[in-house]
Design a protein that fits this description.
- The protein is built from nine helices and eleven strands.
- It has one domain: q2cbj1_9rhob like domain (Jelly Rolls).
- The longest helix has 18 residues.
- The radius of gyration is 18 Å and the shape is globular.
- Strands 1, 2, 3, 4, 6, 9 and 11 form a seven-stranded antiparallel β-sheet that branches. Strands 5-10-7-8 form a four-stranded antiparallel β-sheet, with no helix packed on it.
- By secondary structure, the protein is α+β, with helices and mostly antiparallel strands.
- Bound molecules: 2-oxoglutaric acid.
- 2-oxoglutaric acid binds next to β10 and β11.
């Protein structure tokens, strides 16, 4: 699968792409089953009490079938188009979400450095917790970033929109509700503002984070900065495999390793005590 020039331009301009029905019903049913097994066995899913989010790291890394998502020609094609060949897979999170997620970006890199792929495993509408994005808000000169929309002008906070502008955060002007059916896929720049409102107490969603391949010292320094915060070591989690859970590494083909190597090396450098021996 190859992205068209228009899709790549759309991603650069608006900060996201949405692929309806990328995975067939039988495929997403099997992905959902594997996700449930993973969150129940490795993510405290059985203890989920609906009052708060239950989250675990590396959701695709605990079962061989889910690990193959990083080999999937659709995922590879999308990431090649958005990030360039030899992009890095950089873990992710698996969730039973509970309630609203306020507006936030996942990064403030000021450049296209990292992205998130999101799988939503339940039917979601604008009123029941679908992903909302603020198109274009990844650009440093977008007004929410450039003007620092906030009561104190000190930081950006779209969640104060009622006090600031008299509109609910869910109605923040220009936001787009991406209603999804299981099998749809969304990819967005980590710098893009996003949120979710009205979700029920066990909203299932998992992500894959990815970065540009590092081709120079500046990129490598940015990857180091990224992994210092967003990685098993950054969250003080012991995987048994350093950056990745062992199943991801043990079932990897040489082609998959291309997407694992840079993060694994930088993670070992940052957190040698967690490296696989
Ligand atoms: O679905 C949601 O609640 C939003 C997800 C989100 O904020 C994230 O993955 O960073």
């Amino acid at each position: 699968m190859e992205l068209s020039p228009a899709q790549i331009r759309f991603f650069k301009t608006f900060g996201y792409l949405y692929f309806p029905r990328l995975f067939a019903p039988d495929e997403i049913a099997s992905i959902t089953e594997e996700f449930e097994r993973s969150i129940q066995a490795c993510g405290n899913g059985a203890q989920h009490d609906s009052t708060k989010r239950t989250m675990f790291g590396g959701p695709i890394e605990h079962r061989a079938r889910l690990c193959t998502l990083i080999d999937d020609e659709r995922i590879i094609g999308i990431c090649n188009g958005v990030l360039g060949a030899n992009f890095n897979y950089a873990s992710g999170d698996g969730n039973y979400y509970s309630g609203d997620t306020g507006w936030h970006p996942d990064g403030n890199w000021g450049q296209l450095f990292s992205v998130k792929i999101a799988f939503y495993l339940d039917e979601l509408t604008r009123d029941t917790g679908c992903l909302r994005v603020l198109p274009g808000s990844h650009h440093p000169n977008h007004f929410v970033r450039a003007e620092g929309i906030d009561l104190n002008k000190s930081m950006v906070d779209l969640n104060k929109s009622m006090e600031l502008f008299g509109v609910e955060p869910r109605d923040f002007p220009g936001n787009l509700a991406l209603e999804t059916t299981p099998g749809d896929l969304v990819i967005f720049n980590h710098d893009l503002y996003h949120a979710s409102f009205g979700g029920y107490q066990r909203r299932r969603m998992f992500t894959m984070n990815l970065t540009r391949p590092c081709t120079n010292d500046a990129d490598r320094a940015t990857l180091k900065d990224y992994l210092r915060r967003h990685s098993p070591g950054g969250y003080q989690v012991v995987t048994g495999g350093g950056m990745f859970y062992p199943t991801m590494l043990d079932t990897a083909s040489p082609e998959r390793m291309v997407h694992l190597r840079q993060c694994a090396e930088v993670h070992d450098e940052l957190f040698p005590e967690l490296a696989r021996h």
